[in-house]
Amino acid sequence: MESTKSSKRLVSMGVIILLLFLTAFSYYSPKADAAGQTIIINPGHQVGTDSGAVNSTTGITEVGLNNALAIKIVTTLRNNGYNAMLSHQIPENTMGLPTLLATTTNDSTQIANAANKLGADLLISVHHNSGGTAASGYEFYWSSYHPSVDTNGLYEVTGLWSDGSSATLDSTPCAIALKSKELANLFNTNFKSLDYVPSRNKIVERDDAFTRKTSMPSVLIEAGFVSNDAESLAMADGGNQQKMADQVLVSINQLFGNDTSTTVITADSVKATVSGSQITATVSGINTPNSVKTIQFPVWSDANGQDDIVWYTATKQSDGSYQATINISDHNNVGGVYNVHCYATDTNGKVSMLGHTTVGVAVETMTASLTTSVSGDKINVSIKGLVAPYGVKTIYVPIWSETGGQDDLKWYTATKQSDGSYNLSVDIKDHNYNSGIYNVHCYGVDSSGNYTLLGTTTATVSGSVQTMTASTVSNSVSGNKITVSISGLAAPNGLQTIYVPTWSDVNGQDDIKWYTATKQNDGSYSLTIDIKDHNYDSGVYNIHIYGVDDTGKYTFLKAMTTSEIVPEIMSTSSIKASVSGNQITATIQGITSPNGVKNISVPVWSETGGQDDIKWYSATKQSDGSYSVTIDIKDHNYDCGTYYIHCYGTDTSNLTTFLGDTSVNISTTPMTASKITASFADNMITVNIDGITAPNGIQSILVPTWSDNGGQDDIVWYTATKQSNGSYQVTIDAKNHNGDSGPYSIHVYGVEADGRNVFLGNTSVSVRYVETPIMGATTVTAADLIAYYNRTGCTYPQIYTNIGVNLETFVNMYIQECEAEGVRAEVAFAQAMLETGNLQFGGDVKASQFNFAGLGATGGVPGYDFSATYGNTSTGLRTGIRGHVQHLKCYACDEPLNQTKVDPRWNDTLRLRALSVEELAGTWAADKTYAPKVKAIMNKF
């Protein structure tokens, strides 16, 4: 099963097994007189909706395995006297095994409630696991939390579910919870006899849906991994499934005291002794009614739970005892208490616990002597006299100075020398050249990966390390440039680089740059800084000097500041703007720029809508040295009101300076319309735009239109036509909008002579699109309808011929009745053919009722019988046709009937319900495909 939550860490097998044998649970009587308990077997997941895990290579699905195994378990239990049943119906249940629920729905709440109500004695949920392709083995889940029985001692645990949610567990489990745990352990023990799937030795306490909702013992089985190709094929084998079903029977027999074997294997003693790094486990005095198949000793150390558990198979000795030798190297060379349990399996596959014991193991640890010495900038570490009973994998030496805590901590690996010692040399440059005390620790790692602290010591590094100096550091300012000079350098450890980080006082260090000074012929270093690289900030600049020696060590040499710097920037004497029609002319005069002029930029925007229309223009130099640019307000949406004009100058060094700003006012009178209306008729929308006033002239009138169905997915821009009275009009076919019915939105824009778009207004109209009308003139002939019927290959009802109504007469009656009420005969006749199956009937309505539209027929009710009311005559048949036609008219219009009403289902609330064949779907008939079916027949006429 591929759970939505992950499983818990391994539960201590030793503790569980001890509980099995040392704790007496009393949910059931110790011994039942005969099997017969009610057991629910739930196959996980559901065919067709939830396949669970799927192996893409073998094609095997979890739901298929669950169902097959559940069938075998139920069959095996029933063959042995248990009242076993499936929780719900599954396709594989061809034998007719009983089920708790008659439905195929696999719902944990429904099944648990039904099992609780029935008073079942046990519920087992069958699943198969999913993980990596190499994942393998079975495992079991039980819940200490049973809210329907006990809500005391509850607590929350995280880490059991992969989605991060917590699990509810019970610190004082009720009897059924303890019985569930007992069964999970019995399964885990007895399943070990299976030869096609291994044990994961995993029993998990968790609040799974099935196991927590029952009021009887319940266990969830994960029978193996679907994701493992070989294991999925083995689990799909019917013989293997029967083996697991047999072990389920053995476990349930033991749980209920129905075990068919009267005597279990016993032993007089289980002992363990230690010699060096080995444990010898011995079981003596074995008593058994059957032959012994296997004796096994599961062994693990107390350290870290059962993470090192190993199952050893014992060898029979000449005195009849069984013995196994355990090397602690197979248990990570861990010392301390070891747990030794003993199990016997007889030739019938029955597993018995023979006893358990513990033994203490003293482990020799690695030792060594640790010394350090300092030579210049080096710390030398020596590890000698190494004693390693379990070998040496690595010697680690973490080192750090006391300066700044462990901010310079580094882990070094010592190197083995020819004499067996380990050495290491550490350069303090890798520790920021820190002086003072250094802490030196040493750890040995043995061949099992166990760490041992071999010792700690310190080393002291003298603080008299010679550092770099500079006798003179200065700066000078000229225009927009700063020159930095560094001289009189003394560098005992060599000189690699001189760095000069520089920044202005403006906005902190946001403009900091690290420059590299250049060495001069006289041995000094110098650097020139351009303030354009610092945003032309004015004010004081900060300059620091760092020297880097040949070892890579940084030395701070000096800090200084510049004098106040005033950048030389561009300026102008005036910025003016004037308006002429729809154009603005901006003029910039009196420009002075020490570094020349590269570009004059003029951003312009209207006050309307903020800066949504801002555009950047480039001014052009004029013959008199000024700069000018012309702006057309059509590029600003023809906005009227205030326009803002700013001016920026960029010099040849790419410094951009704000030169000034101005504004102008534009007044225009846009186009207007006094009235916009829309009407709908015959699938056409007519839009009228009246009372247009256009001081700036009219280029066109645009009418974007769309239905509200699906937003603007069907929007179309139409152009209205000028009428003789000066108004504008446009006619719109609703079929251009997918034949949508419902509200339509209509907007109107006027395009002025200069190209400016002006919104004139909007309106809306309700559209009921009639694609295939029901009312109207008939366009088919009697011959067309007769030819259609003959092509169907159906036999015309003899009972109609017997009363004088042959096919030709029948068709003419339909045409005549439709013409009398203004209904299209092709619609009515096609509907009759659909409703009656080309007059073959066969449903609730009979041919003898003369009911050709199923009037009044619903779910077993045959509907209205025109023959019974109007006679089994040609008149009665014509009346049936008339009733059909009148009922169509009732749906399709609000006009009165032209003939006496015979429609038994006439109701004024139905009027105008369906103007078209398309609208019959969902009104006349619930079938949403009803209209296409009627139209398909019409297309055959």
UniProtKB/TrEMBL annotation:
Residue stretches making up the MurNAc-LAA domain: 112-253
GO CC terms in record: outer membrane-bounded periplasmic space
Gene Ontology MF, one: amidase activity
Keywords for the protein's UniProt record, in alphabetical order: Hydrolase
One Pfam family this sequence matches: GBS_Bsp-like
Entries under InterPro entries matching the protein: GBS_Bsp-like, MGlyc_endo_b_GlcNAc-like_dom, MurNAc-LAA_cat, N-acetylmuramoyl_amidase_3
A single GO BP: peptidoglycan catabolic process
PANTHER family the UniProt entry points to: N-ACETYLMURAMOYL-L-ALANINE AMIDASE, N-ACETYLMURAMOYL-L-ALANINE AMIDASE AMIC
Protein's name in the database: MurNAc-LAA domain-containing protein
Species the sequence originates in: Acetobacterium paludosum
Lineage: Bacteria, Bacillati, Bacillota, Clostridia, Eubacteriales
